Give the backbone structure.
Amino acid sequence: MSAHTEVAEHVNGATTKAFVNVWFALLFMTGVEVFLAYEQIPVLIFLTALVGLSVIKAALIIAYFMHLKFEKLSLFLTLFPMLILCIMLMLLMFMPDSSRLMMMRPR
Amino acid sequence: MSQVNTAPLASVWDGGRSPYAVNSKKFGMWLFIISDALTFSALLMAYTYVRLATPNWPTPFHFSPSIIFSTVMTFCLLSSSLTMVMGVHAMNHGNRKAAVGWILATICGGLAFVGLHLTEWLNLIRNEHVTPFDNPWGVPLFGGTFFALTGLHMTHVIIGVIYLGIIAFAVGRGKFKAEDVEVSGLYWHFVDLVWMFIFPLVYLMSAKI
């Protein structure tokens, strides 16, 4: 009974091949991050690439490893817009002031 | 007429059914993860804030051993996430023995991460003389924010290893259901996810900036 329930409840979801592909993608993006850290590229491009790759990696982990891609949309809409809004509110408080402090540095 | 209109509205939100189509344990873990994500967001922003505000922010993370160690640690966590998801997959298909094997592999990945992280900490403390309250560069906030951020994350990893140990033991004895393994997997993947932000912010940004 329990074994049947365990199997029946999870008919949807990614295959093991998809999990391995996501793992390779995550490793590749980590390698790119380390590579960029030692390349002579402008700081702004470097930072943008780091933030972008980190967000993509987080999205892949949430979507495939944490199975959110296969859950109902209502679960995503309940959890993530609120999280993003709260992070935006924190950024509103922190970032303008930290930028001001950076500009006030002695040169 | 009114019956015709209310019938479609008697949906999942009308009670008696789960509107999210997930069990309560899984939903509870998601709520915990969201709240914990806000905690780590605040810590990451605090680290960024004090770093931007400090002109002589120290960058003691040399390629060897710090960047090499942290890259291997990232590999350990990513690989342990893969083994965890394989464990959940095996459990979903009723294969308890394989699930236990995958969860034990996940625990090994977590222990490797903790071991490497402690080695990295000891390197900073012994060779660079960095403590949570002092360092040779006269920027005590560096040690405070670094050890708080990475320490809280390592605490999560250690708790995750203990959690997975309990799950593996119980699953091996024929207890717990697939959903319990899946919930523990959610926690483990979250720990992995947080490191995807700590690694570039703390380590890689010290290599260039």
